[in-house]
TrEMBL record:
Belongs to the Nudix hydrolase family. Keywords: Hydrolase, Magnesium. InterPro entries: Nudix_hydrolase, NUDIX_hydrolase-like_dom_sf, NUDIX_hydrolase_CS, NUDIX_hydrolase_dom. This is NUDIX domain-containing protein.
Length: 147
């Protein structure tokens, strides 16, 4: 299977209470799952620029994404059914409040991103639906351990 390269910026968005924001995806071809905000880079776009753009489009928050905190390369099938190898760069953003606006969602996002919510670590532990990145709890623990 030929995979399309997909550079992507993802955001670990924390509210003032330390909860992490996830969006629920309800695709037509697979079970629902939850995911951090973010998406593919536009042509010529840098990862930090894409992170800021995706954050604004998906949450209404215009915040500096800060430094990259994590990089991973993963293979998956996009919502549109395209097999990709994603070069994902993660950015930590601390929101000043827990309000978001989803008016910037694309037509596809409006169709498949059916809900959003802030998760505590305990709620992630008890989650019955998959979320991505699947090691989000470990990522959050690593972030807490940093000075």
């Amino acid at each position: 299977m030929t995979r399309t390269p997909r550079p992507a910026a993802r955001i670990v968005l924390l509210d003032p209470a330390g909860r992490v924001l996830l969006f629920r995806f309800d695709p037509d071809d697979r079970p629902p799952f939850w995911c951090t905000p973010g998406g593919a880079l536009d042509p010529g776009e840098s990862y930090p620029t894409a992170a800021r753009r995706e954050l604004l489009e998906e949450t209404g928050l215009d915040l500096d994404p800060g430094p990259e905190i994590l990089r991973r390369v993963v293979d998956f099938l996009t919502i549109e059914g395209v097999p990709v190898t994603a070069d994902e760069r993660y950015f930590l953003v601390r929101a000043p409040h827990d309000r978001i606006e989803t008016h910037g969602h694309t037509a596809l996002e409006q169709r498949v991103m059916t809900r959003w919510r802030w998760f505590t670590r305990a709620e992630l532990t008890e989650a019955t639906e998959p979320y991505f990145p699947s090691d989000l709890l470990a990522i959050l623990a690593d972030l807490e351990a940093q000075p």
